[in-house]
Specification:
This protein is α+β, with helices and mostly antiparallel strands. It is about 40% helix and about 20% strand. The two termini are about 30 Å apart.
Length: about 250
Amino acid sequence: MAMIDRGGARGQPPEGEPGGKPDFRELIARPDVRRWILRVAFAAVIGMLFAIVFDPRIGLTAAVVAVIVDTVRRARAGDGGYRASPAERKTAKQLSGLTKKGWHILHARAIPRDDDGVSDGQIDHLVIGPTGVFAIDSESWDKRLPVRTLSHMRLFHGPFEKKDRLDEARWEANQASRLLSLAMGQEIPVQPSVAIYGPSVPWRVMTVRNVDVYSGGKARTYLRKRPKVLTDEEVAGIAAAAAKVFPSKFD
């Protein structure tokens, strides 16, 4: 089985792992951290508006209420009420035929935290097969805006840079790799990828910031055309571990 290159210097712990140098970019890429940043920013705006119109104390109260309401709303939405997006359903339908050929597809899987809780992060599709392990993020974008890349480092949808989507996809795959490696007792590489629906994607597969990007309609081809790196026994073992490690959002 292929081994992960953690990228750390010899004799030094890699970045982002215990004892290593904290990576602020990886922290910001965490979906739970990103949602709290947006939540706090939204509450601050609400608080300032109420403080200007009414009173600073009313503004503070409004900000606190905004945080509480948003937190409760998200908690209720995630409590057994998860629904797959149209893009996720398209990818799921496309990949369903692979199960008859020995592939294992886990949809909408939550990412556990080290404190035994569950983060806000989600792997849309965790795929285990002969060509490896993949974390696929299904995205639906406005078809009127073009998709382009710059030097394999920047991804754009029209005038909008999609660095946050690449960072999140890479974070999800890194977490999947870390947790599966712990469960299996050996390094399990997980390749991040983004399947785009809506606009035309002018390439088959483009690797941008270590994330594979392609048209959603080619997800199945993307998986099958890669070199085989896992035996049937390894695929079954990793799939069994993944089913235990990553809880389903549908439960």
